[in-house]
# Entry
Amino acid sequence: QVQLVESGGGLVQAGGSLRLSCAASGGTFSLYKKGWFRQAPGKEREFVAAISSGGGSTYYADSVKGRFTISRDNAKNTVYLQMGSLKPEDTAVYYCAAGRYSLATTTSGYDYWGQGTQVTVSS
# Structure
């Protein structure tokens, strides 16, 4: 059983930056692909970014491409989401997820989820 704990959320002004972290335990971290999703009030959970188990492949939603960077440190069992040029529409609860096999952009492609961390971008 994999446990995921996100951290690093908070309140930031538009144009600012934040780095989210997701620490994993209870499984072999390096075997799992990792993804970040977000959910704004009244909206469905949406894909943000994903990274392969070895870190060699990444994929981003068009809405964050060029502004966000996903990375992982398998030695620290941690995956990161560096967010820059933040916009008010990036405001959401951000969730870390883990799953086996190929990269996925849908929630069904992931087996384990964290509790989420709130990111609020003020205008």
Notes: Residues 72 and 115 are 19 Å apart (CA to CA). The two ends are 40 Å apart (CA to CA). The first strand starts at residue 3 and ends at 7.
